[in-house]
Amino acid sequence: MLLETIEQANDIKKIRKEDLNVLAQEIRDFLIQTISVTGGHLGANLGAVELTMALHLALNLPTDKIIWDVGHQSYTHKILTGRKAEFKTLRQFHGMSGFPKRKESPCDVFDTGHSSTSLSAGLGLVKAREILGGSETIVSVIGDGSMTGGMAYEALNNAAKLETNFIIILNDNNMSISENVGGMSKYLNSIRTASSYLDLKKGIYNALQGTKRGDSTISRIRRAKSSFKQLVIPGMMFEDMGITYLGPVDGHDISAMVTTILAARRVEGAVMIHVMTEKGRGYRPAERHPARFHGTEPFDIETGIPSHPRTVANYTDIFSTVMCKLGQRDEKIVAITAAMPDGTGLKRFHNRYPDRFFDVGIAEQHAVTFAAGLAAGGMKPIVAVYSSFLQRAYDQILHDVCLQNLPVVFAIDRAGLVGSDGETHQGVFDFTYLSGIPNMHICAPKNKWELSDMLKFAVALGAPVAVRYPRGMAYAGLKEHREPIRLGKAEWIYREREIALFAVGSMVKTAEAVRESLKARGHEVSLINARFVKPIDEEAVREACGDHSLIVTMEENVACGGYGEKILAYMNENGLRNRFLSIAIPDVFVEHGNVELLKQEIGLDPQSIVEKIGGVLRDR
Questions:
Q1: Strand partners, 66
Q2: Is the N-terminal amide bond of 100 cis, ω within 30° of 0?
Q3: Are 503 and 554 in contact (CB under 8 A)?
Q4: CA-to-CA distance for 186 and 198, rounded, in angstroms?
Q5: Is the dihedral of CA 339, 344, 350, 351 positive or negative?
Q6: Which one of the listed residues 26, 239, 364, 556 is annotated catalytic?
Q7: What is the pLDDT of residues 516-572, one digit of tens each?
Q8: Has residue 325 got a pLDDT over 70?
């Protein structure tokens, strides 16, 4: 197999040109086989095989630099840089990440995981190269989805000022290529990037500059040139900004892409190569269902069906059902997502109420301020978003929603540890970054019924509310405990003495197991479902301190600025001297891996918590 000869960066250059398509097929087969076992991002990687090969053929890694926006399409890059053997540990604890990681390889030059960042990072590398006098080629690869993020255009605005080379590859997998435009574009690209053309253009401009009427002549030449190009070349928006546009190029034609990349290296400034690719290419189920194979669990290769299909509803399913019911009851309910209608569970709402559903693209900042405008206009917006993505819109939450005390509900999915996607996706900071904002209310359900009740409560409150729930199967325990939701009020599930467990959201289930272990050791244990992180239930804290010697808080959030710190601060301010233990995520970025393993590693599993409590009791 040709793939077996790829042991390190640049080995692909040893492959004969006529064998490159064979290698591409071997890479696809390997990706399908591997991801069917480990799970991972399949569709994007299948679509970027030839594009990645062309980059590795045209560049010299790791001297030259490739920045992958988001990075979920970097699997072929990892294979071509000698990491094929590590794919058996893909996204597993202590294994290979599904995203670029600088600690993994010198060929991974920038850690990515969230979208629309590669252009800013690439521009920074270009400026560093200028200052240090380097000559390496810098390439940022960004998808058409990521181009919906405003940060990408902020970077383009600055990149347009460059006078040294910076290559931007727009990986577009959602558009078709018109043959006539593509053919003319290819012809013009070959002229505009030829050395003779570039030298002549530079010579004319240099000669005219400084002459009496040189600047106005240059301006007229540019206007005339642009008027002609406007007729035959797509991408004129980029050209008008000052960025040379090349394309569209067939992203599955290795030879054409290598030629274009080499031509782009001769441009003295920012140059965009528009590459057309097909998401899921080469695997029929992924071609038919690109959304389902964006990030997939292990699956059967022949059918594409998950190997372990879900039989129990998860929290996203519950949210989806409640949203449809809310939409039916109230015509002012509107739903907003940032390019995640499937992931956040809004697809059903979209199908039923298309006029009240808004997908704004990968633009969380816009989503939040857009929701604020809807609320100011009399609507009841619900923004469904992953926890780690909401942090991208912090300023908008603070200024545009909470400052005006507008009734926007944030349905925060994937809160807490999410597992295989790792550091960039763990939703463990939302209690901290939201609770410092005036007018914000934060709650977290203990089970699937409480999620339903909290969403209804949040809509009725008429104020900014964040309802935070985890990834995975919806907990169905404690069904008999369903007291009405009251603002800032906790729920006493078991009332005893000695040890009081204040658990937030997903940690209520863990607290049940901790309580049973402690009771087996002869301790009396109360369990309180905190429900609200802001405002905290001060009355419940005072009551617990009155007849319990140890107060324990449990949360799936970082300790710094979390629920535990708020409870401890209240106790100290009010002279409550009970012993106190905070169970939370330590001050670290948590890597990828199975969630249960991660909890054991950081001490959030029942056994570790029982041992910590036992240590405090022994120290008395």
A1: 139
A2: no
A3: yes
A4: 16
A5: positive
A6: 364
A7: 999 999 999 999 999 999 999 999 999 999 999 999 999 999 999 999 999 999 999
A8: yes
Task: Say what the pLDDT of residue 173 is.
Answer: 86
- Sheet arrangement for strand 465-468: 357-359, 333-337, 380-386, 409-413, 465-468, 441-443, 532-534
Instruction: Give residue 196's Cα distance to chain centre.
Output: 44
DSSP assignment, residue 42? Answer: -
Cα(93)–Cα(196) distance, integer angstroms:
54
Position 311 scores a pLDDT of 80
> Is the Cβ–Cβ distance between 27 and 45 less than 8 Å?
no
What string of DSSP letters covers 139-199? EEEEETTGGGSHHHHHHHHHHTT-SS-EEEEEEE-S----HHHHHHHHHHHHHHTSHHHHH
Instruction: Please say if 287 is a catalytic residue.
Output: no
Q: Does 178 have pLDDT greater than 70?
A: no
Read off the pLDDT of residues 377-387 as tens digits, 9 standing for 90 and up: 999 999 999 99
Tokens of 285: 């189920």
Summarize pLDDT for 198-249 with one digit per residue, the tens: 555 555 556 556 665 666 665 655 555 554 444 445 567 888 888 999 988 9
Pair 453, 585: CB distance under 8 Å: no
Q: Which of 78, 101, 192, 392 is catalytic?
A: 392
- Beta partners for residue 532, in sequence order: 443
pTM of the model: 0.88
Which two tokens mark 53? 């090969």
Sequence letter at residue 299 = F
Scan for tokens 């054409």, then name that residue. Answer: 256
Identify the band that residue 398 occupies on the pLDDT scale cut at 50, 70 and 90: very high
Q: Which of 28, 83, 91, 279 is catalytic?
A: 279
Is 297 among the residues known to form the active site? Answer: no
State both tokens at 189: 């690209």
Burial 358-390 (b: 16+ CB within 10 A, else e): bbbbbbbbbbbbbbbebbeeebbbbbbbbbbbb
Residue 364: active-site member: yes
The beta-strand segments (E) located in 456-578 are: 465-468, 491-494, 498-503, 525-529, 532-534, 548-558
Residue 327 CA, chain-centre distance (Å), reads 27
